[in-house]
Write a structure and sequence with these properties.
- With about 350 residues, the protein is of the alpha/beta class.
- It has 2 domains: about 250 residues, 3-Layer(aba) Sandwich (Aspartate Aminotransferase, domain 2); about 100 residues, Aspartate Aminotransferase, domain 1.
- Helix content is about 35%, strand content about 15%.
- The strands form 2 sheets. A 7-stranded mixed sheet has the order 1-7-6-5-4-2-3, sandwiched between helices.
- Helix 5 crosses helix 6.
- The mean pLDDT is about 95.
Length: about 350
């Protein structure tokens, strides 16, 4: 158990003093036949189902169901409007604008930098190594007394590889600020989630999402797992009804279909390996980064021309060729077997034509 960590020392002064908004559904919990406390429309909704009542502000049913699946107690779970809401709250809770800083390890998920800019918080970039692992010495050198957050994405986006677990643990042990481990793609990886390590690391925040393996991207539901004290801060800052009732209902129903999701994960991993094997046979493919995600990062000849060729044929991939350390690379999401065959056919067509 880490002994030197002090959450109170990290928290912004205005957040310490903040009195959160108390909603009608915070002040009354339970069942009642006449609800005249929240200024809702008592007649219902102009829809086949009524959504005239405010939802549970703390999504207790959802958290109980997630506890059964993830093994994380409900009091250690925050639900947000995508993981982006949790990222933004971390900045607002712990980073004094114009004073504090965070550490990013590019190439990585772009919202960390966007959120830093929105909140007027400086960010220090410590690039990953050539094999997309952490530069521990560089990170240690970048930390100062005003460094509040370190963002680590594992499996990493856009590279797809997992960060070495012992390196993440080294940072957790030696850094007295908050370490954010973004596990958006953890369902596709062999490594275990850091969510099981919350009791050992009070400075750990784990981010996950239902947008990837669970196929619920349109609903925008992200998860943060952390100590009860950190989750209490999240709940203090968030809007009172940040997860709408329709989303809560749909997700509750979806969470009963773990077996379906597990089959999708298995098929995605199988298709990922098949696609990577096929690409390695092409002389125009220079490198494929080993992936623990539902995509692969491929360095190949004429990436921009090939990207344009795909767009003209209605196949959209992500051009990462101008991202530092990803020069010449395209990021290919793993599709259905039919979609992957269409991609491979396009690759053969393009390079046979241009060779």
């Amino acid at each position: 158990m880490k002994e030197s960590f002090s959450l109170d020392a990290l928290l912004r002064h205005n957040i310490k003093k903040l009195v959160p908004y108390s909603s009608a559904r915070d002040e009354f919990k339970g069942e009642a036949s006449v609800l005249l406390d929240a200024n809702e429309n008592a007649f219902g909704s102009p829809y086949s189902k009524n959504y005239n009542r405010y939802p549970d502000p703390l999504q207790q049913q959802l958290k109980t169901k997630l506890h059964q699946i993830k093994g994380v107690p409900p009091e250690n779970i925050f639900l947000g409007n995508g993981s982006d809401e949790a990222i933004d709250i971390l900045f607002r809770a712990f980073c004094e604008p114009g004073q504090d800083n965070v550490i990013l390890v590019p190439p990585t998920y772009g919202m960390y930098e966007v959120s830093a800019n929105i909140n007027n918080v400086a960010y220090r970039k410590v690039n990953l190594t050539a094999d997309y692992q952490l530069d521990l010495d560089g990170i240690a050198a970048a930390i100062d007394v005003n460094t509040k957050l370190i963002f680590l994405c594992s499996p990493n986006n856009p590279t797809g590889n997992s960060i070495r677990r012992q390196d993440i643990e080294t940072i957790l042990v030696n850094f007295d600020g908050i370490v954010v481990v973004d596990e958006a793609y953890i369902n596709y990886a062999k490594q275990p989630s850091f969510s099981k390590d919350l009791p050992e690391f009070p400075n750990l925040v784990v981010l996950q999402t239902l947008s990837k393996a669970w196929g619920l991207a349109a609903l925008r539901l992200g998860m943060a797992f952390a100590s009860q004290d950190i989750i209490a801060i999240f709940n203090k800052i968030k809007p009172p009804y940040n997860i709408n009732q329709a989303t809560q209902e749909i997700v509750l129903e979806a969470l009963d279909r773990v077996d379906v999701v597990n089959e999708w994960i298995k098929e995605t991993v199988t298709e990922r390996e098949k696609l990577a094997t096929s690409l390695r046979e092409l002389p125009q493919v220079e490198h494929i980064t080993p992936s623990d995600a539902n995509f692969i990062l491929v360095r190949l000849e004429q990436p921009r021309a090939f990207y344009t060729f795909l767009v003209e044929r209605g196949i959209i991939v992500r051009d990462r060729s101008k991202v530092e350390l990803c020069e010449g690379c395209l990021r290919l999401t793993i599709g259905t077997p039919e979609e992957n065959k269409a991609l491979l056919h396009a690759i053969h067509t393009f390079y046979n034509h241009t060779s």
